[in-house]
User: Fold these one by one.
Assistant:
Number 1:
Amino acid sequence: MRHLLAIAVLATSVSADELPVTSKPSLFPTLVNPNCSHCVDEAKRRKDELKPSEPALCWIRGYSDGGAIPVRFFLSKYRVISDSYGVFVYDPDAGFIRGFAPNYNFVVQGWHNGILTMRDSTDGTVFSALSGLGLEGPRKGTRLPVVPTLASTWSEAMARNPNAVAYEMHDKFKPVELPTEANLDSVKTRPTKIDARLNADEPVLGVRIGAIAKAYPVKGSPRLKTDHLGDTDIVLFGGSAYKPVASQPRKWKGPKPDKNGVSPADAGQPLPDGKVVLGRTLTFLEKNGAIADAETSTTWGIDGRGIDGELKGWTLEWIDSVACKWFAWSAEYPQTQVDEKPKPSANDKVKMIAGKAEFLRLLPKPFGVVRAVDAKAHTVTLLLDGEKLAKVWNVEPDAEVKIAGWWGRLEQLKAGDKVWVWLKLDRNKNPISVAMIADAASAAEIRFDPLAKAKPETVAVDPSAQKQWLRKLWIAEGMPGSLAFVHNFSGELDLLLDHEAMRWGRSLKAGDAVELQGETPIPAIVKSVSPWRERTQLRLVVGELQASELKAGQRIRLKIATPDKEVDESPYPPDLGRERTKEERVEWFLASIYCSCRIGKDTCTGMFYTLASCNPNGCGMPNFTRDEIRDFIGKGKSDKEIWDTLLKDRGPLMLKAHLLP
């Protein structure tokens, strides 16, 4: 249920309980019968613009086993698409995407109870885009037939079925970013009194069978759930509900629409030989991180289709279900049942404290000019843009210092340099110190998008000299880090190497000899190496008496045998392919790549540090990536194959610390 298009909306509505349908038919254009193609072809056509995490509306049955519509390219602008494959709708304010029976005649009408409405231009009947119920006009009280759909992503759709139908993405279809604020016309039509069983904007999976409706809260819900609605057994996973009965594959004819976009009924041709096989009732369970049935061990995708095993290609019967916001579902189905709300998980408890705010979202990030640098005292005097007086700032011991597009040292800055700084805040949100400082060239490199069609003239960064300078410094003085733990009586300690040491630090292996730098160098042996977010965690063994000189929190440098230049220059991390458990492999990837979601405004922690540093409560990309890597591992792919696939899908931003303004 993770792929909900939940868009932030304003506070609870101010309108009366029973309002007429508002009329705003000209607010959003309708797209009618666009030219069709296939996902695999359109992925090539717009390869530089389609994100792996691109929200997509997918229909999951019929010709070519369904299709996919990238929301930014179509539904963000055209809230209703009237087509021979279905009438597809998108309502970010009520948090849903949806499909109804094919027709060319539906257009946006307005809102009712905060929910998008659409009108059949042939007879004027107005329908709810969520329930399909006729609200006004000659067919009031009737309900539109639904098309099996689910909210997914472009990369999931491609992995699931690259030959699925897509619309031709000609140049006129420009991506329109998803709205970040509610439409006031929608908000004004929300009922004053909203069912208090859940919070108004809480995401739910709404399920309807005949006259019975039930809402399943999404937050904290299990990945797989079984239930009964009336006399019907249901199974819920992947953001949809299904009957636990599998039917053999069928081949469906392409649509042959009449003037209204309606095609003749097609029962489909049973595969492989046209012989009809009775459906099989199944019992579902979670197995190795996937959804499988107990009877045949077939793995099932979120579209209710067998991925492998005896029932590969078989399908489950989709039940009318849609992910939306509680206020919308309860307004459409006032008598709805509500599933028992899951108890808070450990992740939910984290969210109570962390919220949705990412670290970088809060930090002031001004530009300024260096007036003086005191490397020994670890301070810098800055005149920040918009201020009249320069101020002396402490620089955090482990602050990120960026010079010439690479890591550097504070002493490399000089008076007059233009810099970009991030200011650390105290609990009262007062700036107290510098957490990151970058010269002008580094700031331009950090904020440069390599996928942009034109490279700004201000970006002309060559970090090669700085890389060589830092390499010589590491050889002479060692790599910087912080002691996280020192056991005085065992001689073991944990050292966290700074971000800059990712490659050299992770080139180390158990048994390597290293040396801690100080007034008297301390020899040590590497016991284990593991990534910890953008840092590298080393478990070292030293003599007990020597360990007594060290304290947790102490800044220290680590000298190692100089690695081959291959460690710096290889396109792959030096510890790629080492023996790890499945979950260790998953977390290794998140600690080794940067988020490539291309969110702007300098807010995404996982872009500048690594994806492992993203707060999963504030963004779906970390957990989406975990699931994607688990799937690759389940298919037997090596770390190198997974790395190559991710890089192909996500592009060069995956490899570098960056932010997009």
Number 2:
Amino acid sequence: MTACNSNDKIKETNPFLVEWDTPHQTPPFQNIKHEHFIPAIDATLIEAKAEVDAIISNEAKPTFQNTVVALEVSGERLERVTGVLFNLNSAETNDTIQAIAREVSPKLSEFSNYVSLNEKLFGKVKSVYEEREQLNLNQEDMQLLEKKYLGFVRSGSNLTGEAKKRYAEITTELSKLSLQFGENVLAETNSFQLLITDKNDLAGLPESECEAAAQMAKAKGKAGWLFTLQGPSYVGFMKYADNRKLREQMYRAYTSRGFQKNDKNNEEIIRKTANLKLEKAQLLGFKNHAEYVLAERMAENPQRVNDFLNQLHAASRPVAEREFAEVVAFAKKHGLQDQLERWDWSYYSEKLKIAHYGFDEQQVKPYFQLEKVQAGVFDLATRLYGLTFKVNKTIPVYHSDATAYEVFDQDGSFLSVLYLDFFPREGKSGGAWMNDLRPESKVNGKEIRPIITVVCNFTKPTDTKPSLLTFNEVTTFLHEFGHALHGMMANTVYPGLSGTNVYRDFVELPSQVMENWATQKEWLDLFAVHYQTGEKIPAELVKKLIDAENFQAGYASERQLSFGMNDMAWHSITKPMNGDIVEFEQKAIAATELFEPVAGSCLSSAFSHIFSGGYAAGYYGYKWAEVLDADAFSMFKKNGIFDKATATSFRKNILERGGTEHPMKLYKAFRGQEPSIEPLLERSGLK
């Protein structure tokens, strides 16, 4: 009888190191424990390194198959583990998960550098790249080869000596800073609570908001009404609460996250991150990080982005100034004696919108029961693309709030697993996002279908009411579902080109185009019924909703542009920035500002998109994609919002193709021409 090897024992007990016998090989969340992650990552790092070393040591002439494709599929088991870890770190984290993420991130950066800075490996890829015209590669093969080659170049493979060593140090440090930034924002969001015990302080708040706050307080073992900085609670309070001092308190708490004098302060992290990105870009021969990033974007360079932002600013500013003056006059007329402040904006804007259009968001919420909205979104995917969705309770989930669906194509074939996870909780980051636990691929003829997650922070049900969504939450659902469609309907060979693996300023097209259906009566009539009476949403209310669609479009545009300008400023520095971060951002966004600055508030300190996400020098992409989505949806408006031919073209040319070709070529294949900014200006009422 032979002794059991300790490595074999780890494999037997660690779910990451055995094949998954779950439906569609979904993660066996019920078996995954915290202590499994680090041993699994250590083991699969060794495995991934061995796979890379096998490519390097292969004495055969480097070919597309034995070098580029082999590199593309290497580390698959490592990605399986890290995919679960980092999805949990966003959607269901805790101190232990965060500590694990911090511990493994340097190891992952070290491995990434081992690959990208490996001279022998780069030499093999380069030799294949130099022979590319003689290799008879198809379009997707060529795109993968170019992406791999440029990936090496952009990751420091041409560096030598101290420069190469420094590059590795920078990437490792940036991975740590990114995690710490996100942890600090989440901790600051969770740490603030506004407990109201005097019912008079609830004046103005709808009964549904009060009930949710009472339920939150009860869950925390407190008497009264509890409001937090999580999306549904914060937004509702700022919009409806009559108590101005409490609105100010909430606003200051929200806008000082990561900017307080405590151990969660992000100021030094911001400076270090911006300066390290600058240093990395300059090591690679670029003036700044924005120039480095935009070399692989539709926009191509910082000048074009800045011109684009300024063009929209010129169109938005006069409208925003009129809107601002209107709210100031309205607030004065309705009793505001002091200067209009930022914590007054949502409150008086909501009242002005009701006065203008008779449209109160509370009027439409009863028609947007989450389950009905979800059915409507699923039905939209069925009408456009023939997809069907089936709950599968045998698929393990990472939290009881999440539900797993099998998604089937129009011919009945299995397409994807989709997890939907809707409600806020302390272990979940704010906002909404789509991610994949496994991308689609067909390498060497082996078809692997994707596993997709959609995670949101919607209004929770209460003891007496189901989850009733705001109109903004409905559009958020559509947005993230558009990303999910991009992932689920991917039809590529290589995972690195699949689904949302596209240029950052193109990735928002599939998501933002879906938002357009939110104001289409023809679609709303299919699902929007009153949760109590079953009555269809009245035509008059839909008209008010549509009429109010462009309410304060100028102000909203300026606000979004301010984010893009702040992002570009941080990533366009050409020398290290060691000054005051508030002064820096105020200078960057001055052109868009309508209010005086608020002392103690900071945009950058909680700007997770650019300091903890993947949007550095890319936040402009939301506005860029608005041009694309408005232009694209004009085809649906022309041909019919459920037109199968238009949807099929969008699927075949955009959703299925991922990053297999330059985005503009894909867009023109769908639209027949380059996008025009005119549909966006018209849709937004800015023209």
Number 3:
Amino acid sequence: MTGAQPPAEEHEPDPIVTPPPAAEVPGGASRGSARTLVSGTSWSAISQFIPLVINLGMTPYIIRGLGDARYGIFMLITAVTMLLSQFDGGIGQSALRYFTIYAGRDDRVATTRLLWSVSIVIAAFGVFISVAVAAFSGPILAFFHLQDAYLAEATFLLVTLTVVVAFLLLRNLYNAVVSARHRFQTLSIAVIAGHLVYALGLVLTIENGWGLYGVGVTMILQQVVGTIITVPVGIRYLTRAGVGLITRAEAAEFSAYAWKIQVGGVAAILASQKDQLVAARIVSAQESGPFGQGTNFANQLRMVPLNALAPIQALIGAEIGAVGPAEARGKVERLQYIWVVAVTGWCAVGAPATLVGVRAWLPESYALAGDVAAILLAGHYFGLVCIVGRTWALTLGHAGLAMRQSVVSLLANVLLSVVLWFPFGLLGVVAGTSLGNLAGAMFLSYDVRRVVQTRIRWFMRDVPYWQAALAAAVTLALELLAAPFLPGGPIGLLLAGLIAVPGAVLFVLTSLGIGGARESIALVRRR
């Protein structure tokens, strides 16, 4: 790829992350990239699939147990608190970038000093948002036409989840240290244990009629369990010699990176949660459940390949920290090829399977969630396919890329949602979200050519186009033929997923070939 030279300020030496000339890389780049990726992804996948199975089995039960209205309120408050979690100044995501590079050269002093410094800021921010939401919870809920009968429960849940989010922002700094050291097993165990607490708590809540009060207490206990597991491990990679604050110059540099991540993060979360919020505003919090559940299900499917993101971040950061961008480029390009093929196949067969499977899975009143989830998953593809290239640029310090991509995506999202609202209603708003993701990915492609000097291959060159179209068409035909015969509940959803297997096999064989498929299976078995 060729393009204009980037502005000088984007290529100034980074005093925090510039690697030493001959750094030893304990636990970093010395591990094989395939081993790191497969091991980390496997543990991350386990930590999602077990909770996913629990959710698939329990969601119809929870909807009926809480009732459509309370469940819709639960989805809405979750969306609001997710939005609030992004207003941390970009500190959390920025810290992860530095922690991965520090891990590449085993710099525990720098890790400790940065964690200590940003923890103070995060703690202050957490207190601020908790107090602010507690003070303005009434107007927030009134904006979404909440009925008075649910006001007390909803207020308790909103304030409780806000405090939980504030606590998570602080805890996730320690989780980032754990992730940077490739301790994905620890993070996975914490997620699984916390979700088991979540499942048990919701069962007790429904059976005892505790409503949204029980949901709030359950969410607190879930995070307490996860904290007990991960934070002690993160502390092992810190040192007393690093206790203290980063220098003023380092703080200025970190802030210059973080504010761009902040803007991009807010824009991204607004885009992802917009459909639930718009639906709640138009039809009320009580009736917005199908849009919230459709959004949630699409995000769950999006998170399946994103289980590889933490290993990808750790691998890219360690490689750059150890050998520099030029030497790391070849390995990252090979990684990108595997990633692009995998997410293309996942979304090609996943969207049609989702359309039919979610309709069978949920109660009839939530049938619209299937349409919402399928449209959003198709749009999520454009955010997924560029992940490796985007992570490469972020690790090199180009936080402005992520910010501009997210802002462009959000602006296109809003504009197209308004345009499509008139002919298609709320489903047009959802389609606007997907098309906004496409606009963001295309802008990122242009922006990388303009800004990044040491570039990897353009991700769109690795997309198997006709193979994906063929697999999607075959899957859609099979799903529509089977739809009238699918049973309701989790079994119907599971069968819809199994019906997608022929399309997935077809995609693998046409995109990788029999030899490539055998090599991929052998690699996974070895690792």
Number 4:
Amino acid sequence: MKVRLKPSVVALCLTGLLTTPVLAAVTQAQYDKLNAEIASMQRELKSLKTAKSIHNNTDGNPLAPDTYQMRRKVSSSHATPNPTTGVPEERPYRLTGQDLRQLISEEREYLPFDMDVPGQAFVSTGPYVGVPIQYAGSNLVINSPSVNTDLQLLGIRKAISKQLQAMGGEIFKEPYHSHLLLSGVVEGQANYTNIGGQPSTSTIDVTNVSLDAFFLGPSNWTLGFIEFTYNNAPPNGDVFDSSSQYTVANSRVLINKAFITIGDLNKSPVYGTVGQMYVPFGRYSSVMVSDPLTKLVARTKARAILLGLQQQGTNAFYGATYIFRGDSHAASVSKINNGGLNLGYKFGGWFHGDVGAGVIGNIADSGDMQLGNNFQNFEQIVHRVPAYNLRGILSFGDHIDFIGEWVGASTKFNPNDMSFDNHGAKPSAIDTELAYSFYITENTPSNVGIGYSHSNQSLSLGIPMARYYLEFSTSIWRNTLQSLELRHDRHYAASHTGNGPTGDADAPGACTSAVCSQSGKDDNAITAQFDYYF
């Protein structure tokens, strides 16, 4: 008998979302034979329906090879006329044991995976998570939100599944086992900074290298994600002497995110995630190259358990609740002591957007506050400090986008933990941005954006009091972004003091002593950035 590849395999190879997989090495003779087989298969029946598994029936009970049944669609050679209507009908096609063994043998010889052996996955490149490579009626978001990655992946899988089904594919139906999407980014920057009151600096750096591994299956309800990234900072004491500035000697690869998600948005709006991730407190979307001050104050990464809900449709509510053990604690011992709630609503139309709010139990677990304590885990503080978040992304048509976000502590820190002008600090920050999207040519999407960020009582984090920025971004080549940013930072006045977390010592104006102050001077920076996504 003649054998053709399952339609799902052909659909997967053709879909634009999953580009052509790398085939296992074969000889030239096998390659020529495969081409001949494919040409012959294309002349065969238009579709071939198989049972759920070659070795199992729909109930999961083994079937002997010589009793395995396949049902073909109607064709001129296998159609049986109905004696009443005269219309050809489907009839069972019996696959013999010899045919089955031949099918399995050829499948394993020519395909890069075995459909019935768990662990032999289909490996392919896929879309970089959260980054719109080309326009889809929206602006180019350079600082892709790092929160809600699990929800983004569920949406990507749903979109892939819908397209494959529209093309007649069934690759995401069990038991077609696991598939692996690899994606990533390489990012380079050239920067010049005129530091107020100090000599100017300039640098060329590789600011981001990330490799994402997105696991789909084997069940429709499971997915996994790992993001490998590298450290571009100068080495610290555990690599070389702490005073060394031999930056390229660091470049250590680390795992930034790693989690498992259970959910299927095709069947249920509820999902759950466990692992290491940025918890959904804030969104921190930006069209700028530099980070908004809201992100520097409050973004929190943790090993958490999350339960979320995402309604489907153009107008939909979403939400998530999560818990984790923070690195800071008020009790004598550390335990699960932090968590939060995130709620939002997205809507469509000419005027479309996404608005939301959130709360977290203790902002002291944010990344910048923990990095400022020399990576000390289980830092004991006098009392926990909850925080709130308000945010919105509003779009007018396909060209104008407004981003606004506020984060702030609900109460003051104890002065011994974090202070501002000799009293307990109550850090907060706001970010506002306006962007206009357009095409320079038919295939060159671009945008221009202007933004303003402001922090309050955050001197101890080593971040500026105000940040003004102007940026231009374009995509000359597909899967790339070219960006130019002009930034003006205004620091806290020299009369202000603070203590507590000392911020990132590599940041301009960072505090590195027990009692911190800033110069009150202004910094100006020009940054050119090139991103290549794959």
